[in-house]
Design goal:
The structure is a single chain. The protein is mainly beta and about 475 residues long. It has helices at about 10-25, 85-90, 110-125, 430-435, and strands at about 45-50, 65-75, 80, 135-140, 180-185, 190-200, 215-225, 230-235, 245-250, 280-290, 295-305, 320-325, 345-350, 355, 370-375, 395-400, 425-430, 455-465, 470-484. The longest helix has 16 residues, at about 110-125. The radius of gyration is 23 Å and the shape is globular. The relative contact order is 0.17. InterPro entries: DUF7705.
């Protein structure tokens, strides 16, 4: 509506501005994701499956490469117009597709990476400042057959070694899962959209029936046409053979290396957020926590830079994956403590930029840290120290794992055990940029500080070697990354 103003006084103009502002929602802060708040009717969502060291290893029989997508537009006529076919989703090693590198046709790891790019091209949405592709459902199997020699050690090829350190029932324990897809369709007379992925690592099970005592995963998304947010309903169950499973919903970089990978990826982050200038907003409702070993991440952020602060370039021997994770399961203890300072970062920085050393037992917030571990290839670590598992990423990694604590209040993070846990669903607005700018990350002495640019942000759980079958269930919606 155009307003024509004749002979108006400043008071009238002010009143009109107030009236227009009160009836028009104006967003002063841009979103870094393509589908800010998950409110677009035309959904873009993909699936990726990984083995212990963020590779594929081998495809599951009859399932194709463990990459799939459900991308569609809702037409003006109320028709769900899919961009990805089931034949696309079943593409596997040896089967060519447009743009595939011939070298990838016989290599399951390379083929999956190329398939993700292909699915991204089918799903891509034009936007400013760059196009975007999809939300990513990540599923990972924590079994590691140490006799296989499949996983590198801090980025270097490692020989087989004796079993015992990691869960594995024997040959084949690192398998990819059976994956089933329910393409998004209309329900309730065309007023509701719903679709999903589900499956199991126990390949002998009937994964579509969700049989008890076998591993199971499921993500179902649904949304009312024309209103509200997509709700992603997650379910994850461990089993005797698969006691360590991970399931996350991620916003990844639209190109380049996402957190934990050394392949070009596709995702939802059309603008890469950089510390300290961003916040993350979402609604989380945890129905079942997944037991005492469930390291449920209210927020998990990942990036990559070298120990000298330079950006990663794909060299797995010098690239370092950096993670920060807020764990909200109240059963998760602080491994960092005055008697275990090797499990703590060397120092803590307060919101007013005061540095507190970890040996300052009167002031260091030990209860705010579950565990800190340094990159396994760092050359100048302050003793005592813990180094991160050298096998579970393609390159060395660094972890800063946090727990609810009053020290995080200024950033909007949970301040006490139980905040946001089962029965306490809520909408969070986290100053992830502000907090991540003050966390300790290792860097070689006398090097320029790395730019903390985050290529993956996700919510979900890692059920960490459960000693009994456990189930986690949660709903995530309204996810947005807001630049400040």
């Amino acid at each position: 509506m155009a307003l024509r103003l004749l002979h108006t006084t400043p008071a009238i103009i002010t009143a009109l501005i107030i009236l227009i502002s009160s009836t028009t929602k104006i967003s002063a802060s841009p979103s870094a994701v393509g589908d800010g708040g998950m409110r677009r009717d035309g959904l873009r969502v993909a699936f990726e499956g990984w083995n212990f060291c963020n590779e594929v290893g081998a495809e599951a029989p009859g399932m194709g490469s463990p990459r799939a997508a459900d991308c569609f537009d809702l037409t003006a006529q109320g028709v769900v117009s899919h961009k990805v076919t089931e034949a696309d989703n079943r593409l596997g090693v040896g089967t060519p597709f447009p743009g595939v590198n011939p070298k990838a046709l016989k290599n399951p790891d390379l083929y999956a990476a190329e398939k993700e790019l292909y699915l991204g091209s089918l799903c891509q949405v034009s936007d400013t400042p760059k196009p975007w592709q999809f939300w990513m459902i990540m599923l990972k199997n924590g079994n590691y057959d140490t006799r296989s020699g499949l996983c590198p050690e801090n980025g270097k090829k490692a020989p087989p070694f004796n079993p015992g350190r990691f869960p594995c029932f024997g040959t084949g324990c690192m398998n990819q899962p059976a994956l089933y897809h329910r393409p998004t369709a209309l329900y309730n007379g065309g007023t509701l959209m719903r679709g999903g992925f589900n499956g199991s690592y126990d390949m002998s099970s009937n994964s579509t029936t969700n049989t008890a005592s076998t591993s199971y995963f499921e993500v179902v998304w649904e949304k009312k046409v024309g209103s509200g947010s997509w709700e992603f309903n997650h379910r994850l169950r461990t089993s005797k053979n698969y006691p360590w499973l991970m399931l996350y919903l991620r916003a990844d970089a639209t190109n380049g290396y996402s957190g934990g990978y050394h392949y070009d990826t596709r995702g939802m982050l059309k603008i890469l957020p950089e510390s300290p200038n961003f916040k993350v907003r979402f609604t989380l409702d945890i129905k079942k926590g997944g037991g005492p070993k469930s390291q449920f991440y209210l927020m998990d952020i990942g990036s990559c830079w070298k120990n000298n602060g330079a950006p990663c370039d794909g060299d797995v021997q010098t690239d370092i994956t950096r993670y920060s994770e807020m764990i909200i399961n109240p059963a998760t203890p602080a491994w960092c403590g005055p008697a275990n300072i090797g499990n703590c970062p060397p120092y803590h920085i307060t919101p007013n930029d005061t540095k507190i050393l970890r040996n300052d037992t009167a002031n260091f917030p030990y209860g705010a840290y579950h565990y800190y571990c340094a990159p396994g290839n760092a050359q100048h670590l302050e003793k005592p120290y813990s180094t991160c598992d050298p096998y579970s990423n393609p390159q060395a990694q660094e972890l800063v794992q946090l727990l609810p604590h009053p020290i995080w209040a200024d950033y909007g993070y949970p301040t006490k055990q139980g905040d946001g846990w089962v029965g306490d669903g809520r909408t969070w607005e986290l100053d992830v940029g502000g907090l991540s700018s003050r966390l300790y990350f290792y860097q070689d002495p006398a090097t320029a500080p790395a730019r903390r640019i985050w290529t993956s942000l996700d919510v979900g759980t890692e059920i960490f070697v459960s000693d009994q079958d456990e189930v986690a269930e949660w709903t995530l919606s309204d996810f947005d990354v807001i630049l400040t």
